[in-house]
């Protein structure tokens, strides 16, 4: 049976990268290929109508692959060429997966065995509807159990009503209190877990009828822990053990050692780790901390974590933990590095910014004949390219000043706003080492905010490409 011959369509700028990728991919997958480089710099500006007028694949071609960003009906090209036509991925780096070559381990990815308890802090100070709304948000982020954080020193008279409201909304509920009156009321209303129990309230635990979390009697030690575990186990009370994670500077390393000690002494015990003492009390973005701590939990068989989202830098901790528990489960079960597996947790910087190289940018600047602006971030600089113009620099104000000083560069208000907006994104990408693609949202992992491109907005207004470009109506004037 003859091999399939795929004809890939691209623009001048992506030609070199596409040739490199296909040279490696085609032998592995088993197809022949050719590349049609059309008279346009950026392939994302193509439309199917524009392509149909210009594309001439070789006679051997059995299928045509258009760029993922190419807009319009594929049937327009298919009818003209009398060949099957489809869109490829939007990013060349995704060609492997497009041809059924999944990233390593991804087919097995997604399972987890760590339960997330998400605490609503100072719950007694909130109205019932506020508690339910917060619980819904936490559940949507990945929480399995909603923990009601009580205020020490007071007895919350409305705890039973709050638990019932959450249960009626379909939530699993835990109660974070040492107050036996509060705990008894919450347990009777349907709370399934009590945080926490030590020698001060363990005698009442057998009356609650629910699982409890056992703490040491003295923070920073394991004093009293085994005695409480033994008493509750004898009474038939289900339990999990939390040796207490301490903040950095207050015994953090020693507290990790205590978790290891408890696991060695109680190899079959259920355990929990309250991770908020690190995420809330350390000046650092929480995602990396959460991944690290859940990695410890996965290796030690700690099957539940308690997290909070109080301070702003930790306000997405539940979602981070939800992704992290899948990543660490995969790493431990597959004995594979947790790398290039979960891109949604790479938020501040990108894995590897895509670059065209100085040679490609210089060639582009020489070839462009229209006055549309192309913006790139390469080699620690912003590159602003148009016909007869290739400006480089780190300061967008200076670039804009130099651009307008050329005399023949006039921008109306909307175009100036667009270029300023894109430069702001480009500077952010330059500062953080992120991948910048003009007219696309920056990638912030699972926090990425989708944005409609300038080109799409223009097309939505006119339903036709701009007609004043020297690239045969396939690009817009920016």
Overview of the structural elements:
By secondary structure, the protein is α/β, with parallel strands linked by helices. Helix 6 links the parallel strand 6 (about 145-150) and strand 7. It has 16 helices and 15 strands. It starts with a strand and ends in a 16-residue tail after the last helix.
Query: Structural class, from helix and strand content?
Result: alpha/beta
Average pLDDT, rounded to a whole number, is: 89
What portion of residues belong to β-strands? 5-15%
Strand line-up in the sheet with most strands: 5-6-7-8-9-10-11-12
Low-confidence stretches: 463-478
Count of runs of 4 or more consecutive helical residues: 16
Task: Indicate the overall shape.
Answer: elongated
Biggest sheet record = 8 strands, parallel, barrel
* Alpha-carbon Rg, integer: 29 Å
Ends: how far apart?
49 Å
DSSP E strands, number: 15
> Helix fraction?
25-40%
Secondary structure topology:
Elements: E1 5-10, H1 15-29, E2 32-37, H2 48-54, E3 63-66, H3 74-81, E4 85-87, H4 95-98, E5 115-120, H5 128-141, E6 145-149, H6 159-168, E7 173-176, H7 180-189, E8 193-197, E9 211-214, H8 225-234, E10 239-241, H9 252-265, E11 270-274, H10 276-279, H11 286-300, E12 304-307, H12 317-334, H13 358-367, E13 374-378, E14 381-386, E15 389-393, H14 396-405, H15 413-432, H16 454-462
Parallel strand pairs: 1-2, 1-3, 3-4, 5-6, 5-12, 6-7, 7-8, 8-9, 9-10, 10-11, 11-12
Antiparallel strand pairs: 13-14, 14-15
């Amino acid at each position: 049976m003859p091999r399939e011959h795929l004809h890939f369509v691209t623009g001048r700028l992506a030609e070199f990268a596409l040739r490199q990728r296909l040279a490696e991919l085609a032998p592995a997958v088993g197809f022949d290929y050719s590349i049609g480089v059309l008279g346009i710099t950026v392939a994302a500006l193509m439309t199917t109508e524009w392509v149909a007028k210009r594309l001439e694949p070789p006679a051997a071609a059995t299928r045509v692959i258009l760029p993922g960003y190419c807009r319009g009906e594929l049937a327009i090209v298919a009818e003209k060429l009398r060949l099957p036509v489809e869109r490829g991925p939007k990013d060349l780096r995704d060609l492997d997966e497009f041809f059924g070559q999944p990233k390593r381990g991804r087919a097995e990815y997604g399972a987890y065995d760590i339960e997330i308890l998400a605490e609503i802090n100072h719950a007694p100070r909130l109205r019932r509807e506020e508690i339910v709304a917060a619980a819904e948000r936490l559940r949507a982020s990945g929480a399995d159990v909603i923990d009601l954080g009580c205020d020490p020193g007071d007895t919350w008279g409305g705890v039973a009503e709050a638990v019932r409201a959450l249960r009626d909304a379909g939530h699993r509920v835990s109660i974070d209190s040492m107050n036996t009156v509060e705990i008894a009321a919450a347990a009777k209303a349907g709370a399934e877990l009590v945080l926490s129990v030590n020698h001060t309230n363990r005698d009442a635990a057998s009356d609650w009828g629910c699982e409890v979390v056992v703490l040491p009697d003295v923070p920073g030690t394991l004093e009293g822990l085994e005695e409480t575990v033994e008493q509750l186990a004898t009474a038939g009370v289900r339990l999990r053990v939390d040796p207490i994670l301490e903040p950095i500077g207050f015994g953090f390393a020693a507290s990790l050692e205590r978790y290891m000690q408890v696991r060695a002494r109680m190899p079959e015990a259920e355990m929990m780790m309250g991770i908020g003492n690190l995420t809330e009390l350390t000046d650092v973005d929480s995602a990396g901390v959460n991944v690290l701590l859940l990695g410890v939990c996965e290796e030690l068989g700690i099957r539940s974590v308690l997290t909070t989202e109080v301070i702003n830098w930790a306000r997405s901790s539940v979602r981070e933990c939800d992704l992290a528990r899948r990543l660490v489960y995969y790493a431990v079960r597959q004995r594979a590095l947790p790398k290039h597996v979960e891109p949604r947790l790479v938020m501040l910087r990108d894995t590897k910014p895509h670059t065209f190289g100085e040679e490609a940018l210089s060639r582009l600047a020489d070839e462009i004949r229209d006055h549309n602006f192309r913006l790139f971030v390469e080699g620690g600089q912003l590159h602003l390219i148009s016909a007869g113009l290739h400006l480089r620099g780190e300061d967008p104000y200076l670039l804009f000043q130099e651009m307008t000083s050329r005399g023949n560069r006039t921008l109306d208000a909307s175009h100036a706003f667009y270029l300023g907006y894109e430069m702001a994104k480009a500077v952010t990408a330059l500062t953080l080492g992120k991948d910048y693609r003009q007219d696309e949202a920056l990638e912030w992992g699972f926090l990425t905010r989708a944005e409609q491109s300038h080109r799409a907005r223009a097309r939505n207004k006119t339903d036709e490409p701009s007609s004043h470009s020297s690239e045969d109506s396939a690009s817009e004037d920016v």
